[in-house]
Amino acid sequence: MEDLSLHLLDVAENSLAAQATRVIITLEINTANKTLRLIIEDNGQGMDKQTLKKAVDPFFTTKKTRRIGLGLSLLAQAAHATGGQFSIESKPGQGTKVSTLFYTDHWDFKPLGDIPQTLLTLVLGHPEVELIFIYRRDDKETIFSTKEVKAKLNGLPLNSPAAIPLIMNHINKAMNL
Ligand SMILES: Nc1ncnc2c1ncn2[C@@H]1O[C@H](COP(=O)(O)OP(=O)(O)OP(=O)(O)O)[C@@H](O)[C@H]1O
Ligand SMILES: [Mg+2]
User: Fold this and answer.
1) Is this prediction's pTM over 0.90?
2) pLDDT tens string 30-41
3) Can you give the CATH number for the domain in which 107 is found?
């Protein structure tokens, strides 16, 4: 995967596959330390200890269509390649939290990619799921939440064409674009 937004999409799709009704994505950039943290937390079905242990193994997947599950192992690799960290916590029936740390000045740091587009894709693909995106850059924090957008739509579904500009607007504002 060539950029972090694609990793984000993949890990968030895991949450949705695990029937999460809420996904919290935190992107934290520290320019002084030259670090980037990406955390994806869900309230989906979670994993037991055994499944969790195997989850970062590229040859483990619970998908029926393919034999190899690459998403988490590729993300772990990408983080480790920059000298960073990867961890995953999960509780059956409660949810899962995937945390990564990247060193942005390392040769192997991949570009961030199009985060707004990725968030839009997630929202439009799963309008029933509550998505919260927390963006921190040094001491500034902004938040995008589908709940907030929904409140402005007067019952119009999040994935209706008329809602798209409003969603984009909120996402871009959250990322100070
Ligand atoms: N958020 C999550 N909640 C519950 N189970 C998860 C979660 N994330 C991963 N898993 C479990 O870990 C396995 C491996 O995930 P991974 O993303 O690495 O591969 P995959 O989703 O199976 O395939 P791919 O991402 O390559 O399409 C999944 O099949 C699933 O069983
Ligand atoms: Mg996956």
Assistant:
1) yes
2) 999 999 999 999
3) 3.30.565
